[in-house]
Amino acid sequence: MFRYEDLLKEVEEFKNRGIETGEIGYSVLNNPIPYIFIGDKKGDSIIVTGGIHAREHITSLLVVNQAKHLLKNPSHLIMGGIYFIPMVNVDGVKLCQEGVAFLEDKQIKKNLLKINSSADFSLWKANINGVDLNVNFDARWGQGKSNVFFKSPSNYVGKMPNSEIETKSLVHFTREIKPLATISYHCKGEVIYWRFFQKTKQQLWRHYRLAKSISEVTGYTLVASEAGSCGGYKDWCIQTMDIPSFTIEVGSDKYEHPYPYTDFNNIYNKNADIPRRLLNTVARDKNLVKQYEYNTAKVYEGGNTVSQTSEK
Fold first, then answer.
1. Are 206 and 244 in contact (CB under 8 A)?
2. pLDDT: is 303 or 229 the higher one?
3. Mean per-residue pLDDT over the chain, rounded
4. N or C terminus: fewer CB in 10 A for the chain?
5. Is residue 169 within 8 Å of residue 33, measured between CB atoms?
6. pLDDT per residue as tens digits for the range 149-196
7. Is residue 112 a contact partner of residue 100, using CB atoms and an 8 Å limit?
8. Whole-angstrom Cα distance, residue 278 to residue 287?
9. Taking the C-alpha atoms of 41, 26, 178 and 36 in order, what is their torsion angle to the nearest 10 degrees?
10. Of 91-105, 220-234, 245-259, 272-286, which range is least confident?
């Protein structure tokens, strides 16, 4: 099981190797939320996140190992760099894995036990305030089909958009970095969510092409529906930043939560190189915009072309 303490050790090892590390901000319990940057600061960048839902901590291990993979193969990154944020919901992950034992505040313990109706937090998704961070962003906030409006292990939207310090930290960091694209890793289902009320047909087509290229590598199914969920990080990036953003649900539905780490190698093998491929694609695509219209352009990744395909 990959814990917050394991993440801190991994980040320290990256730092000791001369790799840039830092924090995007702090959690409700004042724990730092680390990032790892691999690449060239002079070029464009993308952001890759994991662990925004507490019980999906296997995605934190995935994002750390994606950073390691890129560090081993730096020449394959043709331009720019990648910000890896392995565990957005650091307090929630600790709660999910350890229960309330690590908490010193008796009232917080009492409140969490009441919200969860159990001392077993292994299926907990929210942060320490009982807010589901991935429905807390200011993107059609509160309009998701599964949203609830009371503190809960999952789906509580919060008192207002961006109410949580973790959400605020990720929003601020994203605005500061101005990435060309983002990936949010979740678990489970082996699907890719890519659509969220894109403003133009040109934008919609471009985002679809990029999602299709990820699907062709991972074998995951594209999901185009916009109606199910709102208020996610992907949704906010598309709506506010006007950039392609993807929620990638790793792991097979044949397994239940808590998701077994015995399937990690399968997840990693399908996703190890996805961040690099996406950055190479969007960086080259940005340069090609001046030469081609999106409805006729091809996606370039590492010198290869991916032909346009119609969604069925």
1. yes
2. 229
3. 91
4. C
5. yes
6. 999 999 999 999 999 999 999 999 999 999 999 999 999 999 999 999
7. yes
8. 14
9. 30
10. 220-234
Which secondary structure element, helix H or strand E, spans residue 67, and what is its range?
helix 58-72
Mind listing the domains of the chain with CATH numbers?
A: 4-306 (3.40.630.10)
Contact predicate 89/133, CB 8 Å: yes
Instruction: At 284, list the tokens.
Output: 């080259």
Any idea which residue has 């929210």 for tokens?
126
Q: What is the pTM of this model?
A: 0.92
Q: Rounded to the nearest 5°, which phi and psi values hold at 216?
A: -65, -30
| Residue located via tokens 């959400």 | 167
Q: Residue 283 corresponds to which amino acid?
A: A
Cis before 258 (ω within 30): yes
Q: In what order do the strands lie in the sheet with 221-223?
A: 20-26, 32-39, 81-85, 45-49, 181-187, 245-250, 191-193, 221-223
176/170 Cα distance (integer angstroms): 10
pLDDT at 297: 39
